[in-house]
């Protein structure tokens, strides 16, 4: 099955937003083994949309549309498709009652143009929208499959994953299932990871194994086809065990995990509290942890000590230490970590200091970063020598801190989650 | 002139990256008044690329390609176009010496496949690549214009802006120039801003005025065409004055300014130092300021006081105050701001507290945020009631803090920059 994704919306052609829907859908389709050969973007113009559909029908058998299902007069995707396919639009009562409920809940009257959103292509399978008003549609006609999805990513993404994808999976393989599982790694480059598991990558068939790198992380997506979910998971678990036997030390999580979410989970699970003293990151480490709901069970607080004087005044670091070793030093990172831990009365203290760039700092080249980890009686410092831009360096320092903290805790016998 | 943008690259069709190049180019073309009617994405496949070019030639007179100019055998954009247009490829000596220099600088030998990057379409105008090896190309043939750009955004963006755009501008208006200037607003919604300057929006011709909203900010892009740069700027300055006479109180910057960069600039310009005590934002305010190089001249440091106990221990806030008013209160935000300022010995102290969400906090609904501003003897608190997700709320709180701080400082007579 070959697919084309058609995004409808003048805001894309004006360069106001990027076509992230096509990226999302393509990624999802690749998990199903469906080839995407084209993306097209066209404005809110029925004539040009119709021509684009005609081009797509010549080269794809699955055509997925995003956008143009809303209540305004600019929204004309389904009207254009209805006219092109000669399929009438009919009112879907489930969608209508959902829209009416939406307005009732907010105590607002429903205007007539909102009723338009409940019109669907006759004979289609309606895809429920749990995050907005406009329903999606799935229609097979003349050997081709048409799928209509709403434009806002927060509506499109769950609708595709939970409504549309199961229909496509069923269609592709009536007696089977396809399951994907992502392994997440940190502290190893994509090239090195590929070399280490070269045999697995070279000899893959089912499951397939696909590497991808971004933002200093590397992921491996394992995708298995089987008759049942249980069998698919069995295939995935076998392959996962093979991979982790080789590069397991670098794995930190799976699927939607992030380094910060895993760090917070591990801290909470082990009943550990944490504090930090941050110089170059200036609060970024603590702020990233605080993105995770529930973090107040582990993050007590800490210090931003941007200047040398702040390190002395807030943390009680000795002036002599800073004079002797400088602020970008193992000794300074260690003192920051220990003093933050003691002042805040936490189990763990983190110290982050360095030269973010673009200029050298305290005689150290841009990208030199020292991180201190104070865990009970254990004190460890690590040096990073990064070559990125100022803010990439700051973010990498935070990611590395999470990754290395989890490894240190595991070495001390704390359970990974 | 009507344009189509064709991105070449299988990584786009696999959903590994979004087509941000099309967004960037579209935005740039809209400044020139060039309509973009289609974006197309196609893989690294010469047959399908050729078909896509044939479709584009029927509907566009400017066709811009991105990607596929590199040294590997997958890179075949220019080879396919050369064959399709029946134009030979010739070696560009300037590009070749640039590539040789690139390798010499790094002390590495140049492999033969890198030579391929110096081949260009015969008769084209070569677009220099100052951030990579593959040059771009501009070619007019049979009444159509073809532009080839490299895929990596850090190469494509400067090449488009500084090499390609001037050629297009010249082509559109031989004796004139087009200049764009962006005004940035915060604290006013897009709809309200449009209502306030409705007359200006309704009666625009030259300069044009285009509003755009994103991430809680609103921008107005003023674009003027004139015979000389001087005249274009005169037109822009007149229109800018008209707009700012109505909504000037909400404007914080222009062009590439951000709320944080303007805040740091204003603090540095006025010789003011700042500190903060952060609860729900947990360091995000200080970390965002620290994104700006040179911030150490104003940001001394501060506190992350995530728990109630941390507010008491680190900041010396009285337990009675927290018991009486709660941690999500004007009183708490005020005490955090004042105590941070005094403890850090700075001119300004900021206090941030609230319920980020998704759960209520201390009896206050998610999205309730209090910000304290302590500036010398002045103490002001402001309440926000936001309805976003947890991390949107945290980021909005930081943006609002910057915006409101600049207004408070201006009211006290400090110079805006």
Automatic annotation (TrEMBL), chains A, B:
Stretches assigned to the MoaB/Mog domain: 4-170
Pfam families: CinA, CinA_KH, MoCF_biosynth
InterPro entries for this protein: CinA, CinA-like_C, CinA_C, CinA_KH, Competence-induced_CinA, MoaB/Mog-like_dom_sf, MoaB/Mog_dom
Family that this chain belongs to: Belongs to the CinA family.
UniProt-recorded name of the protein: Putative competence-damage inducible protein
Taxonomic placement: Bacteria, Bacillati, Bacillota, Bacilli, Bacillales
